[in-house]
Design goal:
The complex is a heterodimer. Chain A is built from five helices and five strands; from the N terminus they run αααβαβαβββ. By secondary structure, chain A is of the alpha/beta class. Chain A folds into two domains: 122 residues, Rossmann fold; 31 residues, no CATH class. In chain A, α2 crosses α4. The two termini of chain A are 52 Å apart. Chain B is of the alpha+beta class. Chain B has a single domain, classed as Immunoglobulin-like (Sandwich), CATH 2.60.40. In chain B, the strands form three sheets. Chain B has a four-stranded mixed β-sheet with strand order 3-9-6-7. Chain B has a three-stranded antiparallel β-sheet with strand order 4-5-8, covered by helices on one side. A two-stranded antiparallel sheet of chain B has the order 1-2. Chain B is extended, with a radius of gyration of 20 Å.
Chain lengths: 197, 144
């Protein structure tokens, strides 16, 4: 009888310890990471891709004659078409490019089509009786852009049994609004390959 | 006889001048077009030692050549990286931009991954994001 209890205890104790250990391992842990580190969780469009594209396009555009020789050229941001098979927030890419260019102090940005409605609403709101007429924004005082920025992103995805290859090509262009000339264009290519096993 | 000696002397002066101009083409505080401040740089190896840093796991990829120039009012850098091993290597790099006071002139760049084939060279370029950036460091991180 004593021996049976002892045997049970001997079996149960390591079992309980193993369960406790497994429960401990399963516990979630959250930590802050480096937002600029290379992210390779999957081979879909990643934060690293977005940051690399924004950085590469900005640095290239800063060397373009339109910006080097210009007197703080005024640019408006148009659409970057997503021609890939996955969802990519291309607005986030152009927002990053715009922020970097604005911070460089070499480019000014005019209100773009997406923000036009809010701009018009604000100007009209200021025409109301509650505002000081000498301080309010008048209609017909907005400045038009000299250049418009647009682009597209494409992808080629190839998948075999144990391999998935993704190729992205991001193209950005700067068009002269007055004469329709292409003033600058550049591309950034990215290739990512995931293998199993 | 006198004329011969004069010609020889003149040639020697011209030759010496030629050498002197070749050596002294850099502005003070610059080497190979790159800003070096007060650092003593007399060769490409010295320049690479001053400008290239390693973070995290050390990589066997080395910078072998580096040249700087100005594009408009922005500093532009070309660096030659070398993988002299017989294996494909993965490395990441970024530039760190420094202003006149030695402070960071810009936020940290994104790490840019690079694949290097065995026994190969690759040239990477960097352009300063602002004209406040007057100096730089190239930072390498192993991705092995």
């Amino acid at each position: 009888m004593i021996d049976l209890n002892r045997t049970r205890r001997l079996v149960l104790l390591p079992l309980l310890a193993a369960v406790a250990l497994a429960a401990g391992c399963a516990q979630e842990q959250t930590r802050y990471g480096d937002e600029r580190s290379i992210e390779t969780v999957t081979n879909q469009f990643s934060s690293t891709d977005l940051q690399m594209i924004a950085e590469s396009m900005t640095r290239s555009m800063l060397q373009s004659p339109a910006i080097v020789s210009g007197n703080l050229p005024i640019v408006t941001v148009q659409e970057v078409k997503n021609k890939t098979s996955e969802y990519i927030d291309t607005r986030a890419v152009t927002d990053s490019i715009r922020s970097e260019l604005q911070k460089s102090g070499k480019v000014r940005f005019a209100v773009d089509a997406a923000a036009m409605q809010q701009q018009v609403e604000e100007v009209e709101r200021q025409q109301g009786e509650y505002y000081d007429k000498d301080e309010t924004a008048e209609k017909g005082r907005m400045v038009g852009a000299q250049y418009r920025m647009e682009g597209n992103i494409i992808s080629i995805v190839k998948q075999a049994k144990d391999i998935r290859d993704v190729y992205y090509k991001f193209n950005l262009q700067l068009w002269n609004v007055r004469n329709g000339l292409l003033e600058w264009s550049d591309e950034k290519e990215i290739r990512k390959t995931t293998t199993k096993g | 006889m006198n004329r011969t000696w004069t010609i020889i002397a003149l040639l020697a002066v011209v030759f010496a001048y030629g050498c002197a101009t070749k050596k002294g083409f850099e502005k003070p505080g610059f080497a190979f077009g790159c800003p070096i401040g007060d650092a003593k740089v007399s060769s490409m190896d010295d320049l690479v030692k001053v400008k290239v840093l390693s973070e995290g796991k050390r990589t066997t990829i080395v910078a072998t050549e580096m040249r700087c120039t100005m594009t408009g009012d922005l500093l532009k850098i070309d660096v030659n990286l070398n993988n002299d091993s017989s294996k494909v290597k993965r490395v990441a790099y970024k530039f760190r931009w420094i202003d006149r006071e030695g402070m960071r002139a810009w936020e940290e760049e994104v790490w840019k991954p690079l694949l290097m084939y065995e026994n190969s060279n690759i040239a990477v370029s960097g352009v300063a994001p602002t004209n406040k950036a007057v100096d730089f460091r190239l930072i390498l991180l192993s991705q092995e």
